[in-house]
What we know:
Layout: E1 2-9, H1 15-29, E2 35-42, E3 49-56, H2 59-67, H3 71-80, E4 84-92
Antiparallel strand pairs: 1-3, 1-4, 2-3
Amino acid sequence: MHYLFEVTTKSGYTIEQxxxxxxxxxxxxxxxxxxxxTRLHRKIDNExxxxxxxxxxxxxxxxxxxxxxxxxxxxxxxxxxxxxxxRFIGEFEAPEWEVLPPA
Length: 103
């Protein structure tokens, strides 16, 4: 499953600054059972916005991780709160339909 959210930095703060903290938190989160990676995508033509995607084995694994995250993760998240607005987009199943280019 994929967990998606949009991050917008406030005036005077860059997406690169946020990305530093995001990488630190993601490295800790990826130690949780069922974690399958995270990605941060810069929005084209908007230097203050990024799309964050966390991939998990299942919704249950992602939900269980929330209860057992290291306190350092919460500290990193709280340290970013004054500088960013985070809009939760949603939780999505792995793709049921997929079309790829020919090999």
